[in-house]
């Protein structure tokens, strides 16, 4: 047996800091390793966000790190659909040649990118953006485009940014289709929820057809019928208006376009809507009055409504609850927060409160001219001096430092905006090339992807690059996505595991795991304190695998899109000093803005080479630090990084490296939320005419989703204690509910004579699956629920365990605005199976 006992001087017994990669909270962890295994795992008390908290899920993270699912060689698909191992050079040469071939024949925009960073690996994802730009891509997507794009568009109309609720302090906390007890999404969710439930002065309102763990703690549980949230939330908002409970004074001061909203809500028939969602009108009115009376209100919506009918409309109505009552930018309310780098929406530079003096304005003008004419000569001069030995290097360093000092403010903002806009795809088209679906934040609706491929349209997508995602499993109607993938001229998957998607790809590239390389997550969504953690590798990459920056660097090298001379000059500047590098990089991008999208690659190949051995991937963390201080100088200063300009970025970068537990990088004040509004007038623009029309249309009809053929509403994708998307493939990870049973209401089970453990077939319009059932008090009659994250192949396991949900869903049941799939609302029937059957 392997020796596992550890002594104090055995360095494998050291607790090393990292983070959980299973949900967006990214709680800090401390881990002990033995060889390549993660042997002991505990919460890290020093982590600035989680402070020692974890849920049950990360304790056996080794099931992600180690096991038969890991791939350790590049693979190429053969004619019979099997895979042959090939060496890295062959794989990279062939892939680069084929990418270039597709680009030359059909344009770079025919290469589509999917994924790029799951729940914990956005550093690799950001390096991937450089390949997108190197190829000339214009279309991409990821999981956000099957959940958050509707809400994100509503945000962009209302105030142009992402919001977060201050649930630690809110007097009234509202969860709409969100079960934070299991799915988290709030730092230290369970203690926060318990505290709200315990405090008699605070109130929790949950809108959910199920008695979820969160609903069980609620003061008011609005147990709507599935898919009826638009009627429910509009009835609450209408009560605020019709009973004159809204904050007219606050709205007059802080919002525009209020009157059309009030008018539309005055027309809502509260009683009829209450009836449509299966609730008492009195309960709706009580809840509205409680919201209006509260000192502070925050709301959180998630998949229960985002993957249900009317998702974009519900996002709007939900936000009206806190907007009409003036609960923005105050303790316990809703806020726009700072970001390390925005995952959604536009990068925004908030000027220093101190303002810009006349001297600075003059410098800005000089700098603009200098950058226009002197950019390339400056870079060359630094590079040439750098080659001339120590003394001239020192002189170059001093000159660069002085120059940067003077000009930083003037040049940094416009250059940073160019880089940020490229990386966040601000200039992407607004419609897809084939079906004309709306694109938001650069993302094609997930449900439209197959439409953009399975067609003869000349502008169809021809190649696909997939990283850190398993769309053949996670997108609606898997079979259609698989058909789309197989019809492409080229498909490449970068993953740690042989996933369902990898099994359809032409090439599979094995990535190092998130514990084998530098990584970081950009889920910096908190207010008022936001933290960012750069995680160092706990061990070297599994032999045969490579970290993403290396993979992307190697492919981009082969595409030959950047002249070697330019890379050499930037690298030489980096050897002089980071000030010299920054100056060289800024001047390069000023002269060659078309290279801005390649910034991650430029950083990796040049600045990365001058960082200590093995730390090249941190070059991008430096880039983030720079963008972060440029966009939110005051909030970063309040967090303790008080230098100015470039110096402030350097302080933040140094802290990222010195604090493996993570750093608090911003300290916002409640009133800051106003400065983060992106509308020029600094106000909330309450009216969204398209959605007010939609409200009237929806209120004119009754919800109607089931039929005699499909009498149940299946929610395909409930988050449970042991689900974590499909990040962990080994079914032994789950301590209980191994198969992920179908939850069914007591009344329905009695009617069908079912008991827990019995097996049934669930049939939908698109497919069928067999599963065991769990008779559950959580469910209302007519509603059934299957967990997400099941139904994946694991080598050595005798069968696939649990239901692969998207064999049951259809891409046609989707939101009319942003195409979000109705995974929570799939019409279904149940066929009782007499005896246990094998999975089909
Ligand atoms: N344990 C665990 N946590 C996770 C994940 C995981 O896989 N496992 N995944 C992470 C990810 S990627 C995400 S996006 C989040 C999602 O987090 P959540 O959205 O909170 O999780 P769900 O369980 O999918 O859905 C929330 C609730 O919606 C309810 N619901 C179903 N239909 C309706 C409806 O018609 N109306 C309303 N109002 N509610 C409805 C369900 O009963 C459920 O309680 O979780 C994150 N956290
Ligand atoms: N029916 C139904 N469908 C759903 C949902 C639902 O509730 N119901 N939920 C939807 C939601 S909200 C989401 S977020 C999506 C999630 O689905 P996906 O976007 O497909 O993401 P994950 O399941 O998180 O898959 C992460 C992938 O990254 C790989 N990976 C892990 N670490 C690394 C790494 O370091 N490098 C690389 N390159 N790869 C790595 C894992 O092996 C895994 O294959 O599913 C969506 N699909
Ligand atoms: S799954 Fe989420 S809440 Fe649980 S420990 Fe991991 S990051 Fe924290
Ligand atoms: Mo998600």
UniProtKB/TrEMBL annotation:
Species this chain originates from: Nocardia fluminea
GO cellular component term, pick one: membrane
Keywords, ordered alphabetically: 4Fe-4S, Iron, Iron-sulfur, Metal-binding, Oxidoreductase
4Fe-4S Mo/W bis-MGD-type domain ranges (all copies): 13-75
Record-given protein name: Anaerobic selenocysteine-containing dehydrogenase
Entry superkingdom: Bacteria
InterPro entries (UniProt xref): Asp_de-COase-like_dom_sf, MoPterin_dinucl-bd_dom, Mopterin_OxRdtase, Mopterin_OxRdtase_4Fe-4S_dom, Mopterin_OxRdtase_prok_CS, Prok_molybdopt-oxidoreductase
MF terms in GO: 4 iron, 4 sulfur cluster binding; metal ion binding; molybdopterin cofactor binding; oxidoreductase activity
PROSITE patterns on file: 4FE4S_MOW_BIS_MGD, MOLYBDOPTERIN_PROK_2
